[in-house]
Amino acid sequence: MDFVCFDSGISAEENKLMVLALKSNNGSPEPSKRIQPFENPETRGLHDFVTTTTARFFKILGLSEDFLQTDPDGWPVDEKYRNSQTISASVKVVNDLAERGVALIQEFNCSLTRNEEQKQYLLHVVEQHRNAFTAPTKSSLIKRMQQTE
Q1: Cα separation of 111 and 113, whole Å?
Q2: pTM over cut 0.85
């Protein structure tokens, strides 16, 4: 997966707009952590998603930003652009949080028992418990205790 400014399918005009957005966002506060809805998403371009965080990509990977000062039509022949493009293309995109979660669940699952029948029984018990105690609040536990008395 290529970083968008290194994607040959992006027009030079869109690249120009992204460079302008990068320059206008320099020094601005961090973008909000929550996604803000667009009123007309179909009218938005890639440049509308460029923020101060986008500029960090270059710093994190140690990529030259010099080519951003030139016309995007000349980027493919610029040596610094091609070097940055090669480095960018070598970055593997992963969902680290999801992968860690899956690994943790698998490790926990194996630590309990290796017997498949016991695993299924354990999952059944957990499901019953979740159904019995829908909300982990003090009031729901008191209510449940009163029902069993």
Answers
A1: 6
A2: no
